[in-house]
Specification:
The protein is an alpha/beta fold. It has 26 helices and 22 strands. It has a five-stranded parallel β-sheet with strand order 3-2-1-7-20, with helices on one face. The chain has a five-stranded parallel β-sheet with strand order 9-18-10-11-14. Helix 1 packs parallel to helix 12, helix 17 packs antiparallel against helix 19 and helix 18 packs across helix 19.
Length: 655
């Protein structure tokens, strides 16, 4: 049975994981290599111990109501979108309120996490930590990795010829960027088109002589300020909108999204994206269009190569006198303290069951928290993951827990009812166990099958082309396709990691055949890394609802509609905030209902610094208009489900 849990990292994910462990009666020990909490959101001019942190000017992309932990709202006087200082203050308030600091060991680095020899039966882990040069060994029943996905920078210098050999200027990864003061009057090239790249480009455009933004893919730009000045995520991230996306064809939904985004500004004119773009990738930055319109930022195509002082782009254009190149090319998943058999498959979160559990382990006592990219706040996703994981740790696995409870007739009231002749006691006991929030996992084989099913499929036509080309090369002995020693060695290493070999056998070409098959498949797998990275972003409502269902905390819309219709309307048509997952089930919070019904008040409170006298009368009509649509839809739903409720003329009534 799990009792002692090691939590690695004291950032947002580590804090909420520690708190969830305490909620389940577990004994967490959180290891943090720096001297304070906050993780990524604790800004420092010179980050200690190689710690990655945000840059000075950062503002959160998700609003406070959509980002907060489910039982601890942000203070109502906090602005809707937060700088790093207020985020860190919120984390301190959270840690103090739930008394988490006593469970954190600061300035302690986790060196290794290894399975114990009896792991198949005990599920325990050997954890080695280091504090001020002194190593210490621990034994834990379970481990929660909360180190995040911003640990190891991805710097593909090999894809940019000349950057290391000819370019005389300065170049570095975006994790080293802190503020724009050092780039006064310089010509800067930012490589990338994600949130970080555009934030840095906008930040430097105020002081740099010129900023060039190099993009190799299309991107749609959202503004934090949506219709009528409300936060974008509180209007778009709703269960009603998610239902429409499920109901309508994807092509229609894509056209609707593009029409709404282009109503702000035409992305094709700016060279950002067109309606024919295959992927729907988006960033949050309301300043980028104006910077492009004012000429402080110039959008360019992908970089082809670098010379001593210039950058040559794939469209044939050249920009001279480049002083600084910043690569905002993302991060790689890397957990060096885990053993290789676990760490190697972690190329992305799709190799994990529900993006949390490594499915190949005999015991589910290792969980990766926060290794997700959502269309909403990652903090909320990390919390619902931690609640599910700690429920699994506390409740066991499979159906054994249910059978055990049903079999302990002398220890439960429901079973004493059964002895008294109540034949439905077992059903009552089962329902009670399920609603109490007992979290179970399927067998490893089923988890593996689901993981493989969700892997990004290789297109069949591409596979056939590669295999057909290999067969042609073999049949006609094309020299360019024969494996050289270096290429055969590379392919052999690839196959040896998978338990085979591609060395040629005597008097046949099996080695060449094996090599071609391996080389083609491996090339396809490596060639899709870039596109697959974008596909790692998951729908916020869909993913959090899925994990909440596993944890037994997903709100029942039918139950809410029957017991609290006003709350049901707010849950379905309003923003999908984290409070919804505290309404019922495990970890139910008595303040969840009030938090949902007052969430718009907390959004508007920081803006009420000057209230107009004639605004009160008009506001009531706006609210009546907002309620008209959900009321009409609810009535239509009830009439469709219950035909007897429909009005019908009396028989024999004559006009």
């Amino acid at each position: 049975m799990v009792r002692r849990v090691a939590v690695i990292g004291a950032g947002a994910s580590g804090l909420v994981a520690t708190k969830c462990c305490l909620d389940e009666g577990l004994e967490p020990t959180c290891f943090e290599r720096s001297e304070d909490i906050g993780g990524l959101w604790r800004f420092a001019d010179n980050a200690d111990c190689g710690r990655v942190c945000v840059y000075r000017s950062i503002i959160s992309n998700t609003s406070k109501e959509m980002s907060c932990f489910s039982d601890f709202p942000f203070p109502e006087d906090f602005p809707c979108f937060l700088p790093h200082s207020l985020f860190l203050e919120y984390f301190r308030m959270y840690a103090q309120h739930f008394q988490l600091l006593r469970h954190i060991r600061f300035k302690t680095t986790v060196i290794s996490v290894r399975r114990r020899p009896d792991f198949a039966t005990s599920g325990q882990w050997d954890v080695i930590t280091e504090t001020e040069g002194i190593q210490e060994s621990h034994i834990f029943d379970a481990v929660m990795v909360c180190a995040g996905n911003f640990q190891n920078p991805h710097l593909p210098l090999a894809s940019f010829p000349g950057i290391e050999t000819r370019f005389r200027g300065q170049y570095f990864h975006s994790l080293e960027y802190k503020d724009a003061a050092a780039f006064q009057g310089k010509r800067v090239l930012v490589v990338g088109i994600g949130n970080t790249a555009c934030d840095i480009a906008v930040d430097m455009s105020h002081v740099a002589a010129k900023v060039f933004l190099s993009a190799r893919s299309s991107t749609w730009v959202f503004s934090r300020v949506a219709n009528h000045g409300f936060p974008w995520d509180m209007l778009s991230t709703t269960r009603f909108n998610h239902f429409l996306e499920w109901l309508l064809p994807s092509a229609i939904m894509k056209r609707i999204k593009i029409w709404k985004i282009n109503s702000w500004f035409n992305h094709e004119i700016y060279g950002l994206a067109s309606a024919k773009s295959s992927n729907f990738n988006f960033i949050i930055n309301e300043d980028l269009p104006f910077c492009m319109l004012s000429g402080t930022i110039v959008l360019k195509s992908n970089v082809k190569e670098f010379t001593e002082t210039s950058a040559i782009f794939e469209d044939g254009t050249t920009e001279e006198n480049i002083d600084v190149v910043i690569f905002a090319t993302g991060y790689k998943f890397s957990f060096s303290f885990l053993e290789e058999s676990i760490c190697n498959p972690l190329k992305n979160n799709r190799t994990l069951y529900k993006c949390v559990f490594p499915p190949q382990l005999e015991r589910p006592t290792l969980a990766i928290i926060g290794l997700i990219q959502l269309t909403g706040a990652v903090m909320v996703g990390a919390e619902i993951q931690a609640r599910w994981v700690t429920g699994v740790f506390a409740g066991g696995r499979g159906t054994a827990g249910i059978e055990e409870v049903l079999g302990r007739e002398d220890r439960s009231t429901c079973c004493s009812w059964h002895r008294a002749g109540h034949h439905h006691a077992q059903c009552f006991c089962l329902v009670s166990l399920l609603f109490s929030g007992a979290c179970k996992l399927p067998p490893s084989s089923k988890m593996m099958a689901e993981v493989l099913k969700k892997q990004l499929p290789v297109k069949r036509c591409v596979m056939l082309l590669y295999l057909g080309y290999s067969v042609i090369c073999l049949c006609f002995s094309v020299p360019s396709c024969h494996p050289t020693a270096a290429r055969r060695s590379s392919a052999n290493m690839w196959l040896l990691r998978r338990g085979g070999s591609c060395e040629p056998r005597a008097a046949n070409q099996n080695g060449n055949i094996t090599f071609c098959l391996i080389f083609c498949i491996d090339s396809m797998l490596h060639g899709r890394d870039v596109s697959e990275k974008q596909n790692l972003r998951l729908n916020f409502v869909s993913y959090t609802s899925e994990i909440a269902s596993c944890a037994g905390v997903k709100p029942s819309m039918l139950r809410l509609l029957l017991t609290d219709p006003w709350l049901a309307l707010a849950v379905f048509f309003g923003p999908c905030t984290s409070y919804q997952y505290r309404l019922m089930g495990r970890g139910q919070w008595s303040g969840a209902r009030a938090a949902i019904l007052t969430q718009w008040q907390r959004v508007l409170k920081p803006l009420r610094t000057r209230v107009l006298e004639d605004s009160a009368s008009s506001r009531s009509w706006h609210w009546l208009g907002l309620l008209a649509l959900p009321t009409a839809l609810a009535v239509g739903f009830l009439l469709s489900k219950y035909p007897k409720l429909r009005w019908a003329p009396r028989v024999g009534l004559m006009f």
